[in-house]
Predict the 3D structure of the following.
Amino acid sequence: MLTLYSMPDSGNSYKPRLLLAQLGRPFRHISVDTRDGDTHTDEFLTKNPNGKAPLLELEDGRFLAESNAMLLHLAEGTGFLPGDAYERALVYQWLFFEQYSHEPCVAVRRSLLRYDHMKPYATPERLDETLAAGNKALSVMEKQLARTEFLAGGSYSVADISLYAYTHSAEEGGFELDAFPNVSQWLHRVANQPEHVPMEWLPEQT
Ligand SMILES: N[C@@H](CCC(=O)N[C@@H](CS)C(=O)NCC(=O)O)C(=O)O
């Protein structure tokens, strides 16, 4: 069985949990808390030298880090990842966008405001910077979603799962989603996909 080391409150960790739930793939879940140093123990670092969650352990014992790499691997051969080369590249486009232009501001601002251990880093300059960059990322999504139902076109894909994770919780980072009506409607569409689970969902332990 697959094993996922993930942090319940983290959007990066939510991405593979959501896809696994939607694929109906059972997995063992091991909760880690980065604030307790769980990802910096010698044991964890042998599994992921980067010391970050989520981390996926495949059935054969191999490990895979990086949430978006997990989405691509798990979605292979399913309707969550197009077969056509260009359509697939559009999914990659949004996954790279998520990691470079969205997560570093939308997710980071949420953690600056939400977690006590991040408070020393929540300077007014940092909050201003992440707000401006996050609003820019949301406006890029807004323009795309004025044209297509989902981010990479007409079909729900792992691009939507990846960007849903931190967009649906963006208000916790002080972003005003009412200013982005197409994004808000897309959030509802994503939440209404079959077998959707909320961020708090964790599989029952066997
Ligand atoms: N690019 C990585 C980011 C993972 C990441 O930043 N995880 C955070 C929790 S959301 C973490 O483990 N932080 C602990 C640390 O950096 O020491 C991914 O998408 O999986």
The chain has two domains: 2-75, 85-191. The mean pLDDT is 97.
